[in-house]
Input
Amino acid sequence: MAAVPHEVLSDAAPDELLPPVAAPDAEAPRVPSGWEPVAELVARVAEGVDELTSRIVAGIEREIDAYRAGLVPPEELARSVTSNLRVTLRGLAERRGPTPEEIAARRPLGGRRAVQGIGVDALIQAYHIGFRELWAALVAAVPREDPAIATQLLTAATTVWQWTHEATAAIAAQHAETIHTAEARALGARQRFLELLLIGDPARPEAVVLGRSLGFDPGASFQAAVLRSGTGDLDAVLLQRRLEASPGHHAVVVRGASAVVLSQESDAAVVAEAARQVVPGATIACGAVRPGLTGARTSLEDAERTLPVTPAAATARFEDVWLWATLGGASERLDPLLATGRGVAAEHPHLAEAVEAFATARFSVSEAARRLGLHANTVAYRLDRWAELTGWDPRSFPGLSHSLAALHVPS
Output
């Protein structure tokens, strides 16, 4: 998972986010009557807590990729493990589960690990490794000449599990809360960044600072995409998470019925693939790659103009449909000129289909017929009929340009 901003927690120093390590000579535990043999066993394990800590840290770093990658400094991990061992051993000696205060002292650790980029699964696994090694140490400390202690130790298994369950539940809850807070703040930053690009001055210092905070290089090139779902169900957070697993930097913002994606060091195909995993039937329009924050705004305008000329559930790039996307912004002027062709296309779609096929077949009637699965004479007749009804001969450049504009430029 991606690390979240440190400011979502506080300005506290790292050690202040870790539970205190009880001193070995702290107040003696209150041992219940009849529990003395287990308490003595616990005391023997506590004497070797530093060695046990080293064993647990080695196990965590060996078995969990995120810890092996060094996301948590080794000395910090050792301090956390030691703290957890001492408080758990004390609880075992007193034959009790964790107190509310002991659990509360552990909650901030979940937030800190979220900040460091440790997933909740890895965090819980680390706790389980610690308790596994602790139990192994307790079993190893049982005197061979006194097997009765082993039998009594078995009754402590429930207490050990209680510590495991309550501690991991608390840190997982804080981890989730921290991630939620970070995502909410990041979403606000992305929305403000987009707002500055659309209606503000992209070069103003706030836009530059916000862009950098989101992982963008304000001076590098950007590419925008606009997505529209046929169902109206667009989850910006889910799409953001999906894109964060892809190359490059991305910012996703829901804007009305659409989602806007601003990307850097990526590709339109990457954005489209991720979007279709989240919203399979999305209509996706991609702007051109353009330099700087001003270019980011222009790329977004490209995408917004491309969307109306993109077929439903398809993907289109501004570079491929720039003519129709650009002319779509002049609909007030063009509508009267194109109305006849639009009307004929609506009433006789087979004629429009023939014109389209003729254009894409390099103005070859025979090739258009092959693509449509028709006889060449049939296609030729339909082209003639289109010219008769519209006054535009698709075999001439003016007539074909008028015809294609009527078919592609949105009103």
